[in-house]
Amino acid sequence: MGSSQQDSTHRCNYDLIHLQVLQLYNISPEYTADMRFHFPSLYLENVVLLKIWLEPKTGICKCKTRLYGKVALITGGNSGIGLETARDLAKRGARVIIACRNAAKSEQAVTDIIATTGNTNVEYRSLNLCKFNSVRDFAEDFNKTVDRLDILVNNAGCACLPDRTSDDGIDLVMQTNHLGPFLLTNLLMDKLISSKPSRIVIVSSYLHNFGRLDLEDIAGINTKGDFLKYANSKLCNVLWMKALAKRLPKGVIVNALHPGLVKTDIFKRLPSYVRKIINILTDLMFKNSKEGAQTTIHLCVCEELTGFTGGYYKDCKLHPYHKICDDADFVNMFWDKCLLLTSRRERDL
């Protein structure tokens, strides 16, 4: 085959990739031209090859632990890595409770988990982390109706919410990602202690390294910009994990993690044209939800972690974190501020 004929064949293949991407995301060629957003074929081909090369070969939870007789509570368990975590724990035999705000979506998730695992001991309970009253009502009902809690996964999270405060006077991102889970965990602490050995897992993010937290503004009222709000909330997750690790009794462990770059619906509130671009990139480069859930699952079930607390993980391995989290004075002041903001006195730990 001559050089010109080969070039023509490659050009045809590249154009086919271009058209398939446009069709997959329902983007018209005119739209991409208007946005001056193109899909260079060679670039796409290289990205696909890079995706294959980077496809996770490590960071997979290989533990065979069974969870019969155990109870697991997963916030945000109706989608993304929360759903895949719930599915995995149900497959291992645990009673799984997903705590979420969207009832219809959660009921659908429960049906899906039961159908794919054969475990019928899966349920949904309503929880809105943006409202402390909802958190308190949830915890009160849980403590009355569930006899144990072996695994608590603080997974629910959000980004790019409207720039406003909750009814409790706290930035919505900070309340959803940190202070809501902080209060929930404190309210369920007696149940975790009575069920020990038990585990608390906190889903943070590598972006916590970019946080610049002001202890006088943990509520995030004066924090500007979606990125910094999110980064600060995830830094709070790691600080909280460190504070808890020092206060929990023997038999209750807490660890935090970065799930990796995961394709989830966390970007759903961005403008539609931005979401389309992000979806293309995340399809090619990011982990899917099942891959992204592996470190969470590892921290829930790995028997080698029994008794090990206060760690930050990525790809099922210990990973460096923001150095401020090792500042004992800062961590203690942070803990006290969070207790004050959630109007919850510290239990006798």
TrEMBL record:
Domain of life: Eukaryota
Keywords from the named record: Oxidoreductase
Keyword Oxidoreductase: yes
The keyword Oxidoreductase is assigned to this record: yes
A Pfam match: adh_short
Coiled-coil residues: none
Entry's Gene Ontology molecular function annotations: oxidoreductase activity
CDD domains reported in the protein's UniProt record: retinol-DH_like_SDR_c_like (cd05327)
Matches recorded under PANTHER family: PHOSPHATIDYLINOSITOL-GLYCAN BIOSYNTHESIS CLASS F PROTEIN, PHOSPHATIDYLINOSITOL-GLYCAN BIOSYNTHESIS CLASS F PROTEIN-RELATED
Protein name: Retinol dehydrogenase 11
Organism for this UniProt entry: Parnassius mnemosyne
